[in-house]
Amino acid sequence: MAKVRNRKVEVSKTRKKGFLWLGLALAVLSLIIIGVVWISSSSVPTHEQLTPKAAIIDQLSLNYPNQNVTQEITQCLEDYGFQVDMYQGNDITVNFYDNLAQKGYNLIIIRGHSGSMCSETDPGRSTGTYLFTTESYSTLKHPMEQLNNEIVEASVASGQPSFFAIGPKFITDSMKGKFNNTIVVIDGCSGLYSQDLANAFIDKGATAYLAFNAYVHLDYADGVTLNLIKNLCSGNTTLAKAVGLTMNEDGSDPESNATLKYYPNNIGNLSVRDLTKTK
Prior knowledge:
Number of strands: 10
Radius of gyration: 29 Å
Shape: globular
Number of helices: 10
CATH topology of the largest domain: Rossmann fold
Strand order of the largest sheet: 2-1-3-8-9-10
Number of domains: 2
Largest sheet: 6 strands, mixed
CATH class of the largest domain: Alpha Beta
Distance between the termini: 75 Å
CATH architecture of the largest domain: 3-Layer(aba) Sandwich
C-alpha cells in the first residue's frame, strides 16, 4: 500500500510541475504579444501623423472665382508636403465652420469676404470682425447664435443678398473641438483691422494668424496670399521673413494702403514646421 501511495504523490507532483511550466509559458507569450503590439503602434506613425493637412476655404468661388490662384496655392502646398482639401461655394455654411476645428488642419487659408461690421444704431462703431459664409441669412435659423451675437446678417453692399457671417464669439463659444497648432491665413478684407478675430483663433488653439489690416482689392489680396504661401514654403523660411519678402514684392494695396500682418507679434522667428508641430 505504501508503494501505491508514493506513486500517487509522484504523479501529482509531476502534473503540478507541468501546469506550472505551461502557465509560465503562456504568461511569457502574452507579454511578448503585448510588447510587439505596443512597439508597432508607438514606433510606426500613421499616415495622418506623417502628413500635414491644409484646407483652402474658397467662399468667393461662386461669384469671384480665381482657379489659377487656388490651383497654384494647392500645388505649392502639396510640393511642400501638405495634403490639401478644397472647400468651395455652398460648402461654406455656419455648420461647416462649427466643425472646422475638429478636422485636424495644420494650415487653413480662407478666401472670402470679411471685415469689421458696424452697429446699425451707431454706424461709426464696430461690433467686431466677421467672416462671411455662403449660407443665406434667415431670422429663423441658428437662433441662439444670433441672440448671442456669434453670427450676424452681412452683405457686401446695400441692396445685395444677405448671408450669415461668423464672429469671434462663435469661434470661442460655439465652434466644436480645438485647433492643434494651426496657421490661419485670411485672404480677405480687414482681418487684422482689430485683433478680436485673431485672438479668437489663437484662443481656440491656432499658433499664427495672418491677415490684412484694412480693405483690400480682391486681385491684390489673391496675389499677396499666393506669394506669401510660396515664400512660407520656401525652405525653412521664418514667418517674419516670408511676410517681409511678400510685402517687398507686392507693396501695399494701391487704394487703401493695407498691408499683410501676422499675429501674435512674438512668432516672427518661427517657420511653418515650427508653428504646425502637433502637441
